[in-house]
Write a structure and sequence with these properties.
Strand content: 15-25%
Structural class: alpha/beta
Oligomer: single chain
Pfam family, one: Glyco_transf_20
Organism: Aureimonas endophytica
Helix content: 40-55%
GO biological process, one term: trehalose biosynthetic process
Family: Belongs to the glycosyltransferase 20 family.
Bound molecules: GDP-alpha-D-glucose
InterPro entries: Glyco_trans_20
Largest sheet: 10 strands, mixed
Strand order of the largest sheet: 3-4-2-1-5-6-7-10-9-8
Length: about 475
């Protein structure tokens, strides 16, 4: 196979290709890789129509890159996306068996939509392409492509955690789902823990074996399972943080908090992000360190997400209730402890807020990586860097060990970490930040893409088989 095989990316949502400061690092990294090699990005249009996955494909071309999308019917969106992806797989893979709902009907629709996407993708791919499928929406897509006769290289990357086999086994049809992952030549995970959970599932539930060189064997099928921690476009983010729009927002935040020190959190409003636990930690700070009352303000940016899903509606109620309770309990005429925003901000505005923050709390109960932690680091200014408080359950924890690492379930520990962050001397803040900055700028989104693609090109080759460049 030629080293410059065309790249085909499949993900639920597609693009944007050009970065007006709207796209996240992932879209930017993928768009760069597609542009360099030429390629195709295939996914859902975000629209529903009667024809659904049978709809006419919409195509946009920019240089050597094509974006191709198809619609879904309302039933497909309900079963595949809202139902199975977001009410079965998302909670289960985030270790929330208590929130997971399993319905035979949504499972059926999920598999059918994967089959349909594979069928439609076959119109556009050739065997020389490298096909890279993203995330928990498309576990079965590779298997369906193989069934339709696709013989080229197939890779899969899971952006979210992979739960331990004992937990995953609660999913009806779990063996089918993990078995389908074996159709890929390479499966990528964010952390060693996720990779180990996958390999253990294969070993204990599918009677497979772990093999040297990151390989896993099940029956006569041998695939590679590797770790590729995702990064951000750190340079652009640092530029955003120095932009005029960022400075305006930093100034707004500073004038809003007045003499208080700003603590921020930025997350989609999702139960995996530990927003409730973080607020409880902040409340405990005010209880355990009463001198903090009136001297700190917590800003939570929490754009609403998946509002059609019941658990997210419940979370919103709980979130707003808790904020009201904390504010009601501690507010003074000239000071409000918690400020929340549920409408999103631009990336430049966000960068400004990170820069003005004294502390950023990234406290998920479980998270594949968490890009906010990396963005916060990239946005700091060496002269006066803020402190990152990071959950031990975020994938980012393996790289960002110089953050203050917390257990988000331990409320007193969170309060103590906040107090430590608020009193941390400048020299220590700078030392910790420099170490993290070096990693965030080294392992960027572009590097992550490059490493995955290189591994996919090499997958299945015996060691030493790699052709010279
Ligand atoms: C999944 C995995 C993994 C947030 N609020 C606003 C806004 N954001 C942006 C952040 C960040 C992105 O959204 C969130 O990324 P995360 O990584 O934190 O989380 P997920 O959305 O859950 O992503 C995760 C990721 O995939 C990549 O593999 O790291 O673990 O769950 O970029 O900045 N952006 C704007 N306004 C907002 O108000 N513009």
């Amino acid at each position: 196979m030629s080293k410059e095989a065309r790249l085909v990316v499949v993900s639920n949502r597609v693009g944007p290709l050009s970065d007006e400061g709207k796209a996240g690092g992932l879209a930017v990294g993928l768009a760069d890789a597609l542009r360099r090699r030429g390629g195709l990005w295939f996914g859902w249009s975000g629209e529903t129509s009667e024809a659904g996955t049978d709809s006419q494909a919409k195509t946009e071309t920019e240089g050597e890159v094509k974006l191709v999308t198809i619609d879904m019917t309302e039933d497909q969106v309900a079963g595949f996306y809202l139902g199975y992806a977001n009410r079965s797989l998302w909670p289960l893979l985030h270790y929330r068996l208590d929130l997971a709902r399993f319905e035979r009907e949504t499972d059926r629709t999920y598999r059918a939509v994967n089959r349909e996407f594979a069928r439609r993708l076959m119109e556009f791919v050739s065997e020389d392409d490298l096909v890279w499928v993203h995330d928990y929406h498309f576990f079965y897509l590779g298997e369906e492509l193989r069934r339709l006769g696709f013989k080229g290289r197939l890779g899969f990357f899971l952006h979210i955690p992979f739960s331990p086999p004992e937990m995953l086994a609660a999913l009806p049809g779990a063996n089918d789902l993990v078995g389908a992952m074996l159709a890929y030549d390479l499966v990528g995970f964010q952390t060693m823990t996720d990779r180990r959970n996958f390999a253990n599932y294969c070993k204990h539930e599918l009677h497979g074996q772990k093999q040297p060189n990151d390989r896993v064997r099940v029956g006569d099928r041998v695939i590679e399972a590797k770790v590729f921690p995702i990064g951000i476009d750190a340079e652009s983010f640092a530029e955003f943080a120095a932009s005029e729009e960022a400075e305006e927002h930093a100034a707004m935040l500073r004038s809003n908090v007045g003499r208080s020190l700003p603590i921020v959190g930025v997350d989609r409003l999702d139960y995996s992000k530990g927003i409730i636990e973080r607020l409880l930690g902040f409340e405990r700070l005010l209880e355990n360190y009463p001198e903090r009352v009136g001297t700190v303000q917590f800003l939570q940016v929490a754009p609403l997400s998946r509002s059609e899903v019941e658990e997210y509606v419940d979370l919103r109620g709980e979130f707003e209730g808790l904020v009201g309770r904390i504010n009601g309990r501690f507010a003074a005429l000239d000071w409000t402890p918690v400020h929340i925003m549920t409408t999103g901000l631009t990336r430049r505005a966000l960068a400004g807020i990170y820069r003005a923050a004294r502390v950023c709390m990234v406290t998920p109960l479980r998270d594949g990586m968490n890009l906010v932690a990396k963005e916060f680091v990239a946005a700091q200014d060496e002269a006066d860097p803020g402190v990152l408080i990071l959950s031990r359950f975020a994938g980012a924890r393996s790289e960002l060990g110089e953050a203050l690492i917390v257990n988000p379930f331990a409320t007193d520990e969170m309060a103590a970490a906040l107090e430590r962050a608020l009193t941390m001397p400048l020299e220590e803040r700078q030392r910790r930040w420099r170490a993290m900055r070096d990693k965030v700028f080294a392992n960027t989104a572009a590097e992550w893409c490059r490493k995955f693609i290189e591994a996919l090109e090499d997958a299945g080759r015996e060691d030493g088989d790699r052709p010279a460049d």
